[in-house]
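call fold target=Acyl-CoA thioesterase
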Amino acid sequence: MARHLYSCPLRWSDMDAFGHVNNAVFISYLEEARIDFMFRLAPGDGSPSFSGGSVVARHEIDYKLPLVHRHEPVVIESWVTKINAASLTIAYEIKDGDQVYVRASTVVVPYDLAAARPRRITAEEKSYLLHYMDDDEKGALAA
């Protein structure tokens, strides 16, 4: 299984009064990594995949350790844990080497903005996502 790696810089304004990254800011970090991951397939190669829009149906976040400001970015690893006909689940770890600050997941629903409704995942999108799917889950999907 491949993992998508995103280098995420920390901003001074991300800190709260207690001197660490505010819990709500982690949602923005996850969004940056998710957009970078999903749009790797899209318009650069002329593919319409994922360019029509998507919506977040669910977030789950486990805060493991406080993250304080520093000049070095953190790495956000992303991978796919579930693919349904009209949704997918992306898992993440925000980390520094072996040090994990956050574990999270997001359920994403592809969305047709023009029709204002959810849409199915295309064959091209599914093929792309399978490269990043957890090997245990990939076996369950094939069964």
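return ok
The first strand starts at residue 4 and ends at 8. The domain at 4-142 is CATH 3.10.129.10 (Thiol Ester Dehydrase; Chain A).
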